[in-house]
Specification:
It is built from nine helices and no strands. It has helices at residues 15-38, 45-52, 56-62, 74-84, 93-110, 112-122, 126-147, 155-181, 188-198. Helix 1 (15-38) packs across helix 2. By secondary structure, it is mainly α.
Length: 211
């Protein structure tokens, strides 16, 4: 579920913050252009800093590694997802996760061109594929915690939550693959709803029972 997002820095933010945001976006755009042209592995940090006319030290202040340029807003997305995973009203744990996943699809659709451009680069880079898969574990763990409703649980219950979270993330990943294959032309919300409907769980299961 690793994605890229355009900067949301407000025009009312302090000048220093706006300048930092512009520099960050300039690095991302230049790096993305180079990765698309030369490939991720064939593009060096030196290539990027030369394109942007900054120093290596400046680059590393914004991005500790070259890989993170392709996942620049991962932390923001994950933080937003975790906020969505807070149960509302009488939701069951599964209803909460389903709602959060579907709300995230709306964010993806808002910047579909960015996501498609990023995905094309990632799929041509073994390094980025591996990095994305490692990041996906954070999303799986967030879902598992939501299923447990933040409560302590015994080992069997934790295993159940992890297995179900993996299945949910798998459904989401398969849906995104279909979306990218269609050049992001399909309605991602409908695709996501269809995929999550496949995950049928017994009504008596603790994760399905409402509060």
């Amino acid at each position: 579920m690793t994605v890229q997002q355009k900067s949301t820095t407000s025009s009312s933010a302090p000048l220093r913050e706006r300048k930092k945001a512009r520099t960050r976006e300039t690095i991302i755009l230049a790096a993305t252009k180079l990765f698309a042209k030369k490939g991720f592995e064939n593009t060096s940090v030196e290539d990027i800093v030369a394109e942007v006319d900054i120093s290596r030290s400046t680059f590393f202040r914004y991005f500790p590694t070259k890989e993170l340029v392709m996942f620049p807003h991962q932390d923001e997305y994950l933080k937003h997802f975790r906020a969505l995973l807070r149960r509302q009203g009488g939701e069951s744990a599964m209803e909460c996760v389903r709602r959060a996943c579907l709300e995230m699809t709306l964010l993806y659709q808002e910047s579909r061109e960015d996501h498609l451009r990023q995905q094309r680069i990632i799929q041509n880079s073994p390094t980025l594929i591996a990095r994305g898969e490692a990041m996906d574990r954070d999303w799986r763990d967030a879902i598992a915690q939501a299923l447990l409703d933040g409560k302590r649980a015994d080992a069997p219950r934790r295993r159940q939550a992890t297995v179900l979270a993996s299945a949910i993330l798998g459904a989401v990943s398969a849906t995104l693959e279909q979306w990218y294959a269609d050049d992001c032309k399909s309605d991602l919300v409908d695709l996501g709803r269809e995929a999550l409907d496949i995950l049928v769980i017994n009504d008596d299961h603790p994760f399905v029972k409402r509060k």
